[in-house]
UniProtKB/TrEMBL annotation, chains A, B:
One Pfam family recorded for the sequence: NTP_transferase
Lineage: Bacteria, Bacillati, Actinomycetota, Actinomycetes, Micrococcales
Keyword Transferase applies: yes
Transmembrane region(s): none
Name of the molecule in the record: Mannose-1-phosphate guanylyltransferase
One Gene Ontology term of the molecular function aspect: nucleotidyltransferase activity
InterPro entries: GMPP_N, ManC/GMP-like_b-helix, Mannose-6P_isomerase_type2, NTP_transferase_dom, Nucleotide-diphossugar_trans
Annotated source species: Georgenia alba
PANTHER family per record: MANNOSE-1-PHOSPHATE GUANYLYLTRANSFERASE
Amino acid sequence: MPLTEPLHAIIPAGGAGTRLWPLSRRAAPKFLLDLTGSGRTLLQQTVDRLAPLTDGGSISVVTGAVHAPAVLGQLPELGEQSLLAEPSPRDSMAAIALAAAVARRRHGDVVVGSFAADHVITDRAAFEAAVREAVAVAREDYVVTIGIEAGHPSTAFGYIHAGEPLAPDDDAATARHVVGFTEKPDVATATEYLATGEYRWNAGMFVVRAGVLLEHLAAQKPDLAAGVAQIAEAWDTPAREEILARVWPTLEKIAIDHAIAEPVAAQGGVAVVPAAMGWDDVGDFDGLAELLPADAEGVHVLGDADVLADGAPGSFVVGSGRTVAVVGVPGLVVVDTPDALLVTTREHAQRVKHVVESLGTEREHLR
Amino acid sequence: MPLTEPLHAIIPAGGAGTRLWPLSRRAAPKFLLDLTGSGRTLLQQTVDRLAPLTDGGSISVVTGAVHAPAVLGQLPELGEQSLLAEPSPRDSMAAIALAAAVARRRHGDVVVGSFAADHVITDRAAFEAAVREAVAVAREDYVVTIGIEAGHPSTAFGYIHAGEPLAPDDDAATARHVVGFTEKPDVATATEYLATGEYRWNAGMFVVRAGVLLEHLAAQKPDLAAGVAQIAEAWDTPAREEILARVWPTLEKIAIDHAIAEPVAAQGGVAVVPAAMGWDDVGDFDGLAELLPADAEGVHVLGDADVLADGAPGSFVVGSGRTVAVVGVPGLVVVDTPDALLVTTREHAQRVKHVVESLGTEREHLR
């Protein structure tokens, strides 16, 4: 399917990635890191992926003010006007709505699409095909999400419950109505979901006409919509800083899923384009290890590590120039950074966030 | 028991300690390291322990020529004449015999005692009492060993089989005849040993009159004895270097256990003084962890490590100034040195030597 109209992509770039500590830090969050050894950071790869879809459109990055210089440094081709710096984090709805509102003022009632800055997608052709179909469906005033093929009963993701085909007579169309969204399930529930064949992972990708998004917001969250409109109006004027500083902190902190996707799905206004694209949210070291090739000893390596392994298949080593010997424990995780070292196993990868929580004030510099 | 005559102590300081890599290196072997966080290296602690027993006697250290400067640096009180530098390793018999022969030339037919440079003994009073008794027994021309109370059926040590009391009518005497020595047993055999109450660990401590030792050597290994005598005669003369360089490489490589202890025990010439003195040979990281106190999280720490533990009781961290987080695996071993990092578990501590073997020529500098 050709692109029916140019996409205006919005990249919310936030999140600390605490389960990837000490690789990911507050000052060097996941999206600013090259986690796949490709030479490009996750943010850069996100932009690379969107480039073919945004010809004639635009790409905006919404990020915390503290990360703005790093984002611009990594994406010199975008320019300052593509960067929307948040004074403080207000969750995804405010970020995406502001970018959509600014895009509408600049470009008219265009189709926007939000794509997280810190996910990995290995099959770009499948991604592009899914987004092209999503753009076409968005022109029919749906809020369109992309439903990732659920490879296993993950308890780390929310699920999209897909219903009837949107265009049953169109063989080329794969989009379906969305029955609803679910929170992260337990394993039993996730297993049931997979058995039905009707559930997809929610990767937070939303494609929608800017006007449709903002109308839904006005209906669901009128105060938030009004605040965003006020900021967007001032954005490309000298009043931006003053209005932003005054209004932004008053905006409701809510995710787009709760503010729009769930209530609008209940009204029949959300569609899903199913896709298998080698997607991963790189949620923890177990997931990250899977994305990296294993050496002859079965060890996955990221960065500059000279690894010696003896009986440690499936281990994952993030190096910082030293020789690292892993002995006797399959699935070890060793993350070797200049000021902090993490040792765990892939099985316990989710527990890493507790370590970050326990750093306390005396180790504030390591966050 | 008072010391019946001064002891002339011999400290063979050799062995790479490959199971303690990367802490222990060829250039910084176990005996040169402070492994207990006491502020004194194992070698220095060995000398400290022997000081009260060698008043009026002497202490000699036999070590590889490459380690001689470091040994003298750690033991400035000893002086160069206390150091016997081996041009190459010829095992313990040549080292101890040479030191004994030099001592006899310098001091007459004194009682010598050999004590490894890289063991830990926590109960010094018990050690001193055992050595005092051993010196008294050595005056009766026995080769006297000290038999360490076997706390568990270790397969890492040889055992001493104790027989009848040497002086059954002397209530103060604990020495026994030695029936024989055993090689390292399997677990079943070691368990049988312990059940009999007749077996003790062989820690390689031998106390014997110099003349007795050298006569046994002449009887058992005449070529070795002749070579040692030739070197000893030249030792305190200008001919030392020339003779040492010529004769030393020809000496048979054999341990004192095989050369003297075993055959002389078979002749009834060996006695054992049983003792419990908190002895440990610090053979691997599992053993080393036991010697160090655990923090509130149950983690044993050596060196400068800021440890964060979550579900890793019994772990052992050797630090080098960084924050180290250990998560989810009890008994982890993390040895963090400037150029090499080892991660394993205490259960696999013995496997560390295989890592050193696999370093290969490209990592020769890490040995």
